[in-house]
Structures are given as structure tokens and as C-alpha cells.
Amino acid sequence: MRTILMLLILTVTFPQEKPQPTHIIEVITINGAINPVVTDYIRDGIIRAVKENAECLIIQLNTPGGLLKSTRIIVSDIFSSNVPIVIYVYPSGAQAASAGVFITLAASIGNGARDKHWCRASSNDE
Which of these, 1, 15, 54, 125, is most buried using a 10 Å CB contact count? Predict the structure, then answer.
């Protein structure tokens, strides 16, 4: 009885610390052309970020561009995401050309490392 009373006193005297909330940030990396495989990879990243209740999904992007259909699907997935999407053109000297520009513009936040390259999409008719 004495032991139980001592434990009770210690518990009341020294309250246990409350666990600190965890802030989860998902990060995925795209280093290459935008295509159906990349589309699935980004969609899976968004789904994982939603399931883990992440603060945001950061997409490190370095792309010369890619397929229009894949770009449209990615932009649509970004627009319909419940998690903020951050596009970071990385590493230094990386590019977000053509499809990369549209994907970056669709994001909640778009930025890049020093010496990043932005290139607009253009048709062959110019």
C-alpha cells in the first residue's frame, strides 16, 4: 500500500511531459523528363503526403520538359491536392523547362536554387 501511495505522489508531483506535435514534410525528387512514370511518382507522393497528414509536399525538380499529357495530369493532381505542393528547382544549375514551368506555376509555392534556369514552352512554328 505504501508503494502504491508513493507512486501516486510521484506521478502527481512530476507530471509527464506532453509529446510535441510532429511536423511531417514529404520530399520527392524529379530529375529527368516528364512522362507517365513521373506522373505516377508525383501522384504517389501526393497520396503519401495526405495519408501522413504532412504539412506539405516538396518536389525537387530538374527537368528539360516532357509530355503534354503527363504535364496536364500532374497539374490537375497538384490543383486537386489537399496538401500544399512546393516546387523547388534544385540543385544549383537545374532547370524547369517547358513542362517544368507549367508544373511549377501550378504549385502552391515555386522557387529554386541559385543559378536555376526557367525556360518557356514554345512550338516549332516560331
Answer: 54
Q: Please name the helix (run of DSSP H) or strand (run of DSSP E) that holds residue 60, with its range, or none.
A: strand 56-62
Cα–Cα nearest to 26, from 62, 58, 51:
58
| 8 A C-beta contact, residue 28 and residue 52 | no
Q: Which domains does the chain have, with CATH numbers?
A: 21-119 (3.90.226.10)
Its sign, for the CA torsion 115, 100, 89, 31, is negative
SS3 105: helix
pLDDT digits (tens, 9 = 90+) for 13-51: 555 666 677 899 999 999 999 999 999 999 999 999 999
Q: Which residue has the cell 503519401?
A: 48
The number of helices, as runs of H, and strands, as runs of E, in the chain is: 4, 6
Q: What is the pTM of this model?
A: 0.78
